[in-house]
Amino acid sequence: MLKMVSGCTVGAWLAGCATRPAESFPTPPAAPAAAAATNSPVQTQEPEQPDPALKKLAETPVTSFEEEGWQPLFDGRTLTGWRETKFSGHGETAITDGMILLKMGDPFTGIGLTNDFPKMNYEIALDASRVSGADFFCGMTVPVGDSFCSLIVGGWGGALVGISSLDGMDASENETSKYVTFHQNRWYRIRMRVTEGRIEAWIDREKLVDVVTTDKKISLRPGEIEESKPFGIACWQTTAALREIKVRRVSEAADKPKKY
Q1: Listed residue (16, 227, 210) closest to 108, CA to CA
Q2: pTM, to two decimals
Q3: Between 239 and which of 60, 64, 131, 171 could a Cys-Cys bridge form, CB atoms 3.0 to 4.6 Å apart?
Q4: Widest CA span in the chain
Q5: Alpha carbon distance 228, 240 (integer Å)
Q6: For residues 46 and 124, is the Cβ–Cβ distance under 8 A?
Q7: Which of 52, 1, 5 is closest to 160 using CA atoms?
Q8: H-helix or E-strand containing 124?
Q9: pLDDT tens by residue, 108-139
Q10: Is 215 exposed, middle or buried (0-12, 13-18, 19+ CB in 10 A)?
């Protein structure tokens, strides 16, 4: 059960990066013989120590996905099928121990899918963790028919969950706004379902978003988040870890809207 909190400092907004083949550099020339004959000690650089928090995240077992039909979008080793999101001031994106690491940007870092993605009647799920920082560690931009919106997890100072935007109001202003305590270096299973007339979202097993979208205007918050279309994941002034990104087709909402 997620612990709900009462308030949150209004912060800011949504993030990108990709990989490229490693550049090859020429072998440095050997030191001159005269230098080798001196009594000066050779300076060696200590290898970078692994981050214990990342090591712990990597060793945390994956929770099984309920129901069937899930297809992986991340192979656990490379960013094949993904691209760097061209946010200004973005941080580095890296693969480490089966995780995608979106390093803190100024303000955004993120990735976008280059393969096909459904527009309607689908579920998308992933594990995400805030490694450092104090704002949203998962800003997931998705298609809703011919429109787009973003599910924000941990935004506006670290606690907000909601959809941006509905009828021109972002996640801090509309009926989907919730405030949740998120802990650093802990995996959260984030799942979103988009069906005809409805958007739903869960954190772990708790449903936090359930909105009927009939007659609502669905859009993205104006700004760089447009770069995340059609499907992308971003973080804001935060380092985030991602893994187990999967999608599946569905035929209807998890709980059908009541008909009167």
Answers
A1: 16
A2: 0.80
A3: 131
A4: 92
A5: 16
A6: no
A7: 5
A8: strand 122-133
A9: 999 999 999 999 999 999 999 999 999 999 99
A10: exposed
